[in-house]
Amino acid sequence: MTIGGLGAGAFYSGYTLNPPNKNQALIDQWQEEIRLQQVRLNIIGQEADADIDALSSRLGLLQAHVMRLDALGQKLIQMANIDKGEFNFNSTPALGGPEPGSQRALQSPELARAIEQLSLDLANREDQLEVLEDIVMLENLQKEVQPSGRPLLKGWLSSYFGMRTHPISGRKELHKGIDFAGKMGGEVIAVAKGVVTYAGRRYGFGNVIDIAHGNGYVTRYAHHSRILVSVGDTVEKGFKIAEIGSTGRSTGPHVHFEVLKNGRQIDPVKFIRASN
Fold first, then answer.
1. Per the confidence metrics, is the pTM higher than 0.85?
2. What is the predicted pLDDT for the residue at 91?
């Protein structure tokens, strides 16, 4: 109000104390100044609108990113295998926009605070996601190297783990594995991912293969007619490593299968059943 009064007083003084042509020039000058100030005000308003629009857009992107991370986190918790193509972080998920005029209700400081909080949430979600990914990767790796399933594609279980009368010697002996009878030349497969640590002949076993899987686990496959891997080879679960035979102490074509934990034979039955 004071500024307005001073302006009006100056205008009145200038108008009455100066000749008409000077008064008109002064009025024109003031009008031009008012016009320039209005232009500046419009520019400021446009910049403010653009600033709010930019902040609102960034806020929406951050919200979408957090929502996607949350969805991925939930999926990681619920499943062991992740479809990498399902979550594409290079594209923005479809989201609805704000109601008309709602951006006006938020001032720049409010938007800035919201963005700052969302940025913190986003960083926290990304940290959690990295931990979840590590956990899932470890679980998947453990599943890959954990022995499970049968060591041949076609055949039947012919002798269990434990004390039995040996078919050749006739004496009671501890059978430290499981025998699977099969067709001569049939496929012998690895029951888990691992590294071949032995591939050759061994007394009693004939042609035998040992595969180390980590965590103290080793699987052993014996009596093959032909060995198809070498020491140092990395094999995947289900990979063909040999052909069924009857080498060593054997009465017919079969696979003698052992599971060792920290160098000691354990009953393979639970690992075979684990695949069912």
1. no
2. 45
